[in-house]
Amino acid sequence: MALDYVTGSMAAAKAGEWSSQKAKEGIWHKAGMVVVVLVAAGADLLIGAVLAHLPVIRLPFEYAGLVCPIMLVWYIITELGSAGENAVKMGAPVPRWLPKLLAVGKDAVDKAGDGFTGSEPEKSEREDQGHE
Hints:
Blueprint: H1 2-14, H2 20-53, H3 67-89, H4 97-117, H5 123-126
Helix pairs in contact: 1-3, 2-3, 3-4
């Protein structure tokens, strides 16, 4: 997250578009991401507690958490992709395969998460909301 924030600020400064308001919005964006990770960790704790204390619900494996790790991987891939985009804006060469590889990874994580709910997300849910 810090790498994305710093490279985003550098790319904006290079383009003459840096502003303290946009920088503050970027910090709020990152803080919101931390909250989502905490919510995912809370969901894992709740699921673990339910499985441990309700004998009618049994899984054929030990539940050690799933929501938070998937969320973390999704965010890490997203942040790496955004930092790569910022590097391009700063003038760095980036091989064509790197953004494609990150997109494939993010799509795989999305599909894994969608598989738990048994539903296909709406297009707006799949699109990246952008980064500061």
